[in-house]
Amino acid sequence: MHDPLHILIASEDPAARLLVSDALRCHYPDADIQDAHSCAEAAALSLSQSFDCVFLDNTLPDGTALICLQELRAAGKSAPIIVLTNQGEEALAQQALEAGAMDYVPKSDLSPTVLAHCLRSALRDSRSQAQVRQAYKALELRDRAIAAASNGIVIADPNQPDCPIIHCNPAFTTITGYAPEEALGRNCRFLQGAETDGEYVQQVRDCLQQETDCQVVLKNFRKDGTLFWNQLTISPVRDHQGHVTHFIGVQTDITQRRLAEDALHRSRTRQQALLRDLFASVTEGKLILCGTPDDLPPVLDRFTDPVPLSQAGGVRELRQHTLRACVAARIPEARRFDMETAVGEAAMNAVVHARTGTGHVFTHQRGTVQVHVTDAGKGIAVENLPNATLRRGYSSAGTFGHGFKMILQTVDRVFLLTGASGTTVVIEQDREAPSPHWPHPSLA
Ligand SMILES: Cc1cc2nc3c(=O)[nH]c(=O)nc-3n(C[C@H](O)[C@H](O)[C@H](O)COP(=O)(O)O)c2cc1C
Questions:
Q1: Ligand 1 in reach of 154 Cβ (< 6 A)
Q2: For the chain, does the N or the C end have fewer beta carbons within 10 angstroms?
Q3: Domains (ranges, CATH) in the chain?
Q4: Contacts of 121 (CB under 8 A, 6+ apart)
Q5: For residue 132, what are the CA distances in angstroms to 19, 238, 260, 352?
Q6: Amino acid 397: pLDDT
Q7: Residue in 153, 189, 213 to alter for ligand 1 test, most ligand atoms within 8 A of Cβ
Q8: Are 412 and 437 in contact, with CB atoms under 8 Å apart?
């Protein structure tokens, strides 16, 4: 059910008012029809109420329909307006149309059919105009949002050769230094340089080809040649049929963040190197702190299958394999038992601190036994490393706890890789005790 129409008829001529309202009621019997006798009265009523349509007589006591129309529009009233004209007033009516009136009807033609037709088309046109206005407002809002964004935004057209930029916002210019007229019509790859990582560019290429979203961080170059780190997000825009009509790219300059991360990484690496030297120094080269898996020693020849370690077992089995490997490598008895005890300690540490782990025994024909004990616990924080590795009997959650110092005293070399994703200890014992020297060859 529709709400009844609200109509305002502004005319000082009672006959004209009656004629219009009677004619309208023939087609719209429920219509709420109100009268105004002057331009001022029409304006006042329009301010206090909302009308679906206003009929304005061209000659009102205080002004023409054009003046009245301008007053209503100035007050923000957008109801469609139909002007009622007297004979010879076509020019005036034309002016009203140019100022925004929907239609005009000569008073001599005021029949129910003509009025109903006028009203219907005025309502329909006014609705479509409102829709256009709304869509335009939404577009305007979107344009303002794009213009105000602090991220670079570009729109590229994949239906033109080489997918050129067809729009870029002011932030794109701020980030890259390229004015719109220097960027429009070009493919965005002009931001790349010899140092841009081809692997990530390939990712972009693949995503564009597959018409999927993509996020990468690329080295790009500003107009003045300086490098910036571009965190780039590209999304396809599809029409109602699902065809990609455009791609939108959002560029975030993360150079400052990236530089800070690089500085932090460099400082961590320096700290790691410092600790590595320190540990090697105080343990006469026996403890080698590893920063990455690449720092671990080369894996020797496999002696047994991996041994799972848990509270249910595994530690004894690993000790036994170690002992057998030591016998096979003809390691002297006392040094065999030292190795076995050290491996037992390392395996127990994994079980106590990470609940589970894995032990793996390797040998080398030159007479070396190598045992890897790995766990997926939370590792040892850098600040705990000195206590965890060098203090006798030191134990707290997240450290190696007891026995690590003893391990260092009984075997030839211990490699330690520890981090948030777990810990690997590699213990090595040679047939003969190495002559005391430092730094260890692997550090030299
Ligand atoms: C909307 C859009 C924005 C893009 N923005 C950038 C950008 O900021 N920096 C960049 O290096 N590449 C950008 N690209 C990627 C390049 O235009 C190009 O697609 C990429 O280099 C891989 O294609 P190619 O092999 O033709 O060079 C963008 C691509 C699109 C579609």
A1: yes
A2: N
A3: 1-134 (3.40.50.2300), 151-253 (3.30.450.20), 260-443 (3.30.565.10)
A4: 102, 103
A5: 34, 22, 49, 71
A6: 47
A7: 189
A8: no
Ligand 1, atom 6, residue with closest C-alpha = 188
Q: Cα–Cα distances in Å, from 210 out to 153, 187, 243?
A: 21, 18, 12
Q: Under a CB-based contact definition with an 8 Å cutoff, are residues 187 and 201 in contact? A: no
| C-beta of residue 233 within 8 angstroms of C-beta of residue 215 | yes
In this prediction, residue 174 carries a pLDDT of: 95
Do the Cβ atoms of 171 and 151 come closer than 8 Å? yes
Is the confidence at residue 1, as pLDDT, over 60?
no
Residue at token pair 């993509």: 214
pTM, to two decimals: 0.54
Would you say the CB of residue 427 lies under 6 angstroms from ligand 1? no
Amino acid at 113: T
> What sign has the CA pseudo-torsion 294, 295, 297, 302?
negative
| Ligand 1 atom 25 nearest Cα | 205
Ordered DSSP codes for 358-412: EEEEEEETTTEEEEEEEE-S----GGGHHHHHHSTT---TTS--TTHHHHHHHSS
Kindly report the length of the chain: 444
Dihedral, CA of residue 70, residue 71, residue 73 and residue 74, to nearest 10 = 110
Dmax (CA) for the chain in angstroms is 128
- Pick from 62-66, 102-106, 135-139, 220-224 the range whose average pLDDT is largest: 220-224
| Whole-Å CA distances, 105 to 55, 115, 360 | 10, 8, 99
